[in-house]
Amino acid sequence: MSETATAIEMDALEFDVSMMRRAIELAKQGHGYVEPNPMVGCVVVKNRSIIGEGFHQRFGEAHAEVNALRGLSSEQRQDATIYLTLEPCTHHGKTPPCIDLVLASKPSRVVIGASDPFPPVAGNGIAQLRDAGIRVDVGVESKACQRLIAPFSKRQKTGRPWVIAKWAMTLDGRMATHTGDSKWITNETARRHAHQIRGNMDAIIVGIGTAMKDDPMLNARPAGARLARRVVMDSSAKLSPSSQLVTTAKEYPTLIASGPNAEPTSIAALRSHGCDVWQSDSESWNVRASEFLQYLGKLGCTNILIDGGPTLLGSLFDQKLIDEVHIYLGSQILGGLPNLVPNMGAGASLMNQAIRLNHTSVESLAGDFFVSGDCNY
Fold it and tell me: Who's near 169: CB < 8 A, 6+ residues apart?
């Protein structure tokens, strides 16, 4: 291949990458609104110019392809290139299958970032496009597109939601002073950021220790796109009826995850105040935790936030049930002997056993920092 031809190919690939990145950015605007569906973005290009854009905006409403192609004439659509973060659906759900609209548009080429893990689709969209004689290129910005749908994919494959562990700590790893004081480790900007994330969650979970010590509300302030279930991992169902979580249970959905030895009268009292109570038959906390995640998946939860203390976090890390971490670093140094560390599980014995993070990012929040990444067990 000549240098000129190579340069043309590289230019074409760079253009594909830039268009797919634009589709990814569009898709992210649906976060919190489209779940349990995946986030999807679409860009329509003709003569190397964008003529249409769209994303899946809300669950039950039009998908990305429809929003991107709507308003374009049949002449504009024909022989265009369509960039999709996820292959077009081929089944009739809340909306008609998007493959029909894409085929009817008669594009010359469709560029797809990731195939759909949903069994009724799972490559069928790609196959139908190719059967129609349309050129299909799959895998442009594949890792980014797969990460975009990671919570959706996990629920499809395992039945469990995507689990995010969140905590705040100082630069020297303290979650509180030696007296137990922890307000506030982070600044107001960081706390607002945390509440924005809460507003995109299907459930926010704490342990009974945190619930009793902090008496939290566990809601997003201000309210976000989703109203999360507030969950307490409470084996004995001993959460006080006078706690904020219980007294506001009729206003905000509240779920207690209890064990087999919880007193029936305690469960009845919580239910009388409007709490839902899930009870496991297993004596093992580890088994109950795994069962409960399956239960949340059946309820339709896609993204859940573990906002509890180090004991709960440690147990879930030990079982490899955490998918992503959100760490807020306050720009402070407390010193002294550590009172609380974020993960009080068994932990790793050797450095090469440590949990590594993928897709890491660091964001500055008015002097504090937000660090996030996916767990690579």
Answer: 175, 185, 327, 328, 329, 330, 342
Q: Is the dihedral of CA 364, 165, 253, 270 positive or negative?
A: negative
CA angle 119, 124, 125 (to 5 degrees): 115
Terminal alpha carbon distance of the chain: 42
The H-assigned helical ranges of the chain are 3-28, 64-69, 74-77, 98-105, 124-131, 142-148, 150-158, 188-198, 208-214, 244-247, 264-272, 285-298, 310-318
Give me the residues of the chain with pLDDT under 50, please. none
Which residue shows structure tokens 């292959």?
Answer: 87
Rounded Cα gap, residues 84 and 88, in angstroms? 8
Of the candidates 135, 132, 161, 128, the residue with the CA atom closest to the CA atom of residue 35: 161
C-beta separation of 80 from 108 below 8 A: yes
What is the predicted pLDDT for the residue at 174?
87
Tell me if 103 sits within 8 A of 128, measured CB to CB: yes
Our CA angle for 147, 149, 153, nearest 5°, is 105
Predicted TM-score of the model (pTM): 0.92
Q: Tell me if 203 sits within 8 A of 228, measured CB to CB.
A: yes
Q: Using CA atoms, how far apart are residues 245 and 180, in angstroms rounded to an integer?
A: 22
Of 368, 334, 49, 52, the closest CA to residue 176 belongs to 334
Angle at 21 between CA 15 and CA 26, to 5 degrees: 130
pLDDT at 95: 80
Residues annotated as catalytic are 65
The token pair that represents 44 in the structure block: 């329509």
d(CA 277, CA 232) in angstroms, rounded, equals 10
Q: Which residues pair with 127 in a beta bridge?
A: none
Q: At what angle do helices 285-298 and 310-318 cross, to 10 degrees?
A: 90
CB 137 within 8 A of CB 16: yes
Instruction: Return the structure tokens found at 100.
Output: 């029909």
For 263, the 3-state DSSP assignment is coil
- Residue of 298, 261, 255, 266 lying closest to 281 (CA atoms): 261
Number of other CB atoms surrounding residue 181 within 10 Å: 11
Whole-number pLDDT of residue 183: 84
Identify the pLDDT of residue 5: 52
